[in-house]
């Protein structure tokens, strides 16, 4: 019995791949998924993938809140007379974005509670997406290129080795020193 119990408690380590731009890192001996990895996963997405993720999240949340509004009939006043789900969906779009045109508004306690939760979700989502977009734009990229050959030539009686490196970016570096050593 205790043998079965210890097998359930032990987790098998696995390899987790994390892509950051063009570079891929592999974590060895870790759990398959942790919540802190969501941030790194979002930063590792390419821009089109990130845009699809944000759009899917936004539409999904609006559909969820429209479904919640529809659970109580007449929770939203000022219907346009069209299909009821579209009214709730577009009211949700206005509320999640904290736009609030004013034509439609919650008229029951249930509608007010749901719209309060939706407004708080919208503010949090706006802050989180703004932070993610800022981090994606401000990530530094190391654009250093190195020469393919190493030069060894006598200088003051010693055989120093030298190589060339340059920045691929269009900005100019005034002075840079790269310490390195060569061992036999």
Helix % is 40-55%
Query: How many helical elements?
Result: 5
* Beta-strand residue percentage: 15-25%
Q: Which outline best applies?
A: elongated
Compute the CA-based radius of gyration. 28 Å
Low-confidence stretches: none
Structural class: alpha+beta
Order of adjacent strands in the largest pleated sheet: 1-2
Distance between the termini: 57 Å
Number of distinct beta strands: 8
Q: Whole-number average pLDDT?
A: 80
For the report, how would you describe the main beta sheet?
2 strands, antiparallel
Element order, helices and strands?
HEEHHEHEHEEEE
Written account of the structure:
The protein is α+β, with helices and mostly antiparallel strands. Helices cover 45% and strands 16% of the residues. The chain contains five helices and eight strands, in the order αββααβαβαββββ. The protein has helices spanning 2-9, 37-44, 47-70, 84-96, 109-138; strands at 14-20, 23-30, 76-77, 105-106, 144-146, 151-152, 161-162, 165-167. The strands form four sheets. A two-stranded antiparallel ribbon has the order 1-2. A two-stranded antiparallel ribbon has the order 3-4. A hairpin with an 8-residue loop joins strand 6 (151-152) and strand 7. The longest helix has 30 residues, at 109-138.
């Amino acid at each position: 019995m205790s043998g079965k119990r210890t097998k359930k408690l032990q987790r098998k380590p696995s390899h987790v791949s994390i892509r950051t731009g063009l570079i891929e890192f592999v974590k060895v001996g870790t759990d398959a998924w942790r919540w802190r990895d969501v941030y790194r996963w979002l930063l590792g997405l390419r821009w089109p993938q990130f845009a699809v993720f944000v759009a899917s999240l936004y539409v999904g949340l609006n559909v969820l809140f429209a479904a919640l509004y529809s659970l109580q009939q007449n929770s939203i006043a000022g219907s346009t007379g069209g299909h009821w789900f579209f009214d709730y969906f577009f009211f949700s779009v206005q509320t999640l974005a904290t736009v609030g045109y004013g034509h439609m508004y919650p008229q029951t306690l249930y509608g007010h509670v749901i719209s309060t939760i939706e407004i708080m979700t919208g503010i949090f989502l706006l802050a989180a997406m703004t932070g993610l977009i800022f981090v994606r734009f401000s990530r530094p990229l190391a654009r250093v290129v190195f020469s393919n050959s190493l030069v060894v030539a006598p200088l003051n009686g010693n055989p120093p080795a030298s190589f060339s490196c340059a920045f691929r970016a269009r900005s100019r570096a005034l002075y840079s020193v790269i310490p390195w050593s060569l061992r036999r």
